[in-house]
Amino acid sequence: MEKQNRKAWLYLLPALLFLLVFMVYPLVDVLIYSFEEGYNSASQTFFGVGSYNYSYVLHDPYFLQALKNTFLLVVITVPVSTGLALFISVGLSSIKPLRNLFQTIYFLPYVTNTLAVGLVFMILFKKTAYSDGLVNLFLHWFGSPSVDFIEGSYGAKMFVLCFYTIWVVLPFKILVLTGALASVNQDYYNAARVDGTRRGRIFYRITLPMISPMIFYLIITGFIGAFKAYSDAVALFGTNLNAAGMNTIVGYVYDMLYGDSGGYPSYASAAAIILFVIVLTITCINLLVSKKHVHY
Amino acid sequence: MKIVLQHLTKRFPSRGKKSHGEVTAVSDFNFEIPDGKLVGLLGPSGCGKSTTLNLICGLLSPTEGKIFFGSDDVTKLAPENRGVGLVFQNYALYPHLTVLKNIIFPLENLKGTAKLSKEEMRERAYQVAKLVQIEELMDRKPKELSGGQQQRVAIARALVKMPRVLLLDEPLSNLDARLRLQTREEIRRIQQETQITTIFVTHDQDEAMSISDLIVVMKDGIIQQIGAPQEVYDNPANLFVAKFLGTPPINIFLGTIRNNRLYIGEDAVLVVPDVPEGEVVVGIRPEGFLLTGNASLSCALKRLEVMGRDVSVVCANAACEGGTLRAIINAEGTPLPNTETVRFSLKPQKVFLFRKETGERIECNLVPLTEVK
Fold it and tell me: Are B94 and B142 in contact (CB under 8 A)?
């Protein structure tokens, strides 16, 4: 038995080693950093241990702005993208001709480079000295004045960011949900049909519960992904996100480390830990809620 | 409810672009199922049994032909308007709903005047649950039930809306051997108590024979024979039906008719007065062999298998399909063979002749050799 145990540990060793070095150690290190007050990266010294870093971060208007942006992004994009993906997948599964073509088209954004997509969005939305952008041309048609989506009002910028995020995450969700829908045994639908079940009821009482594990998976990963959003904002608004007022929590962490005003690993660590706690809490709430509504 | 099928045909289009691959799953079915009977659709897999069932319940619509329930033409009706209850092979119980909710599900779909109150639904659900004896399982989820219990729940769900016709698709194939015996009795009992016209599909002839009032033997989308189980067994219409029914299976020989005698190998076994000379296929039921009388069919004994009341005598004979024949002999009162060669005489009513080319039955009078001389 003893020998077997040793063998098992031996087999686990490579994975454990990598996890310890690249996951556990950094996490612990970040936690330690976040409590070291007045850390100086040049001399690698600090004055004392305490919660000042947290207090600084939580009072920093840039962080609060980033927090607000991130929450808005999460609250808007996760439900909208999941719902939209569900709608499109149901549509895709109920058509026969050209289904594969549509599936490919819907999946294309997933394999497209984020920054390239960002560039296209700039062309669509950005207002320059020479052009108002394609979207504004449309708005003009309907008699509305130009809106500056990239450098204009907060609402307009948030709209573009959410629009962009939804557009980027949609393909993967559609892929997962079409797969889930296809895996529901046809017999359940036949049984429901013989019993005269209306289509809406079939959807709510049979289809949704059957694919609930997949929907739940998408919601959890969607929440986590949206909380960690950064590159989307950069692609649209450039690297100086604080100035644009469109920073995210991860963006704030990055700026604290490497940005123009950076060089504060302690603040960055504190912000990162705050993000970690938020994501952990939300995921736990999700898991609790799912117990009632997800049928494995 | 009487069910009538008229020229029922279902053709499936070919897959892909090739036009020659059209499949006829059900070809020109004509039969009538009397009210309140239990009917078994029997045939090997891929013979169109399930397609027939789906046509009757309305999940598929026929290419040609008509279906009547009583005097109503239901050919064009949607499944929910036909008043059928369907039990699926895999039961198709909704895994996220409890047994009670599964059973109530069809009732919740009722609209207009047929709409029931919550209490009425519960009452109806408990009534059928009592019928299929699952009252104590109402709060469980399907995955917490055994296969046999799931089967009962599926039947309860099909019965709860009081269908005119109950259809069962391979109802026993997912159960283990012991449960299968029990459940088929159960299906018979439920059918007799409710008196609902019931059609079930099976590839197991034992199942079909044991509980049906009527069996329909199918092959490649064509009806081979319809009749009461015993009738079909005693009087098969062709070689396929003869081979398909009976355990152990019928023994098939290549025989010749010469001088009004039926020869198997070089042994004359029976007198056939009215069949033209030539080669024929001979089917002999295992119970058609006798060790007494003018024993003329000689075989090489391979082994004896004692099964209590009966003994199964396994012999080799060159004219037999597969080289081995199995005879079931009543063990009481007959001295068992202990020599290397066994000689049998045959019971004429257990011997069937078929045309060699088509497998069609040759209707004829078979007479034992002794009665002629």
Answer: yes
